[in-house]
Amino acid sequence: MKKKILALGFALSLIISACGSSPSEEELAMVATSAAQTVEARFTQQAEKTATPEPIENVEEPTPTFTPTPTETPVPDVAPEGCLVANYVGETVPDGTVVEIGQYFTKSWSIRNDGTCTWHTGYKLVYWGGDILGGAAEYAFFEDIAPGETMNMPIQLLAPDIPGNYGGEWKIKSPSGYVFGVGEYDVPISVNIVAGDPDDIEYGITSVVYSLDREPDFGCPTNVHWNISATITVSGRMTVVAQFFQSDGNHTLKETLVFDEAGSQTMTMDWTLHKGAGAAPRWVQLVVFKPEKFYYPTYTFVNNCPDLVD
């Protein structure tokens, strides 16, 4: 502003010097008007520079996008038809076995490979349901089982600290994740125990199962041997004394079975029938004398040879 006032005074002094006399009012007015226009123009230019900033190009930063990586869920391969077929053969620690609370025990299953594929160490026995009884979720096979062979799979389990009935189920898993059981209906193998307080445990016979075998399988020779068996299962350490009674009035000698732990033992009798003995039904009956006397149901069979001798 000071520079602009000095410029105006300098212009007036030039006019006065040039004319050599005092400027007229008209000349002064012209100079003032011109100076004012010059000042106004400079103020306008300055205002425009201040009020109108140079445009800044706005560059939008790209918003990051996240493309989810698909998670592939492995789908177990379906085993070829007839490849994975298992059948139950036997077991230790039969159902109903009494185990002291807090005690370890070994459960073992015998399973036959009736399929067309060999079971190798990539196969596993896996927990399927029920009470796991201190076991692991899975157990790797420790040997190869070819078709037609039978494997024994023992695992260590633990009876709970609270008395009661407990049961767990297990199946087989192939390396591809295919899970299968035993038998026609693909059922799991199982363990079923009774956990008991040592002061309250009373071991006993849990079951008696009869079976029959004929020798020879077919035909009617002079003698046909009918072998009748009774498999006795007990819940713990005990001694059993028993014998067979027959419908013809005969009986076998008493037999003593000593059990060091829960399990099964089999008694067998032979009933020989001569050719022409007749087809009337016959029965046998197991009678237990120890630990206490008990008459089990009779088992009936029919002789399938002719009644008359040739």
Structure explained in plain terms:
There is one protein chain. The protein folds into 3 domains: 2-46; 86-196, Immunoglobulins (Immunoglobulin-like, Sandwich), CATH 2.60.40.10; 205-302, Immunoglobulin-like (Sandwich), CATH 2.60.40.10. The protein has 2 helices and 16 strands. Residues 1-21 and 63-73 have low confidence and may be disordered. Helix 1 (2-19) runs antiparallel to helix 2. The chain is 15% helix and 41% strand. The protein has helices at residues 2-19, 25-51; strands spanning 86-91, 97-100, 104-113, 124-130, 138-140, 150-158, 164-173, 179-180, 189-196, 205-215, 223-234, 238-246, 255-259, 263-274, 281-290, 294-302. Strands 2, 4, 5, 7, 8 and 9 form a 6-stranded mixed beta sheet that branches. It has a 4-stranded antiparallel beta sheet with strand order 13-12-15-16, with no helix packed on it. Strands 1-3-6 form a 3-stranded antiparallel beta sheet, with no helix packed on it. It is mainly beta and 310 residues long.
What class would the helix/strand composition place it in? Answer: mainly beta
Q: How much of the residues is beta strand, in percent?
A: 35-45%
How big is the Rg?
52 Å
Got a strand count?
A: 16
Shape: flat
How many domains? 3
- Approximately how much helix is present in the residues? 10-25%
What's the order of the H and E elements?
HHEEEEEEEEEEEEEEEE
Average pLDDT, all residues: 81
Outline the biggest β-sheet: 6 strands, mixed
Return the CATH architecture of the largest domain: Sandwich
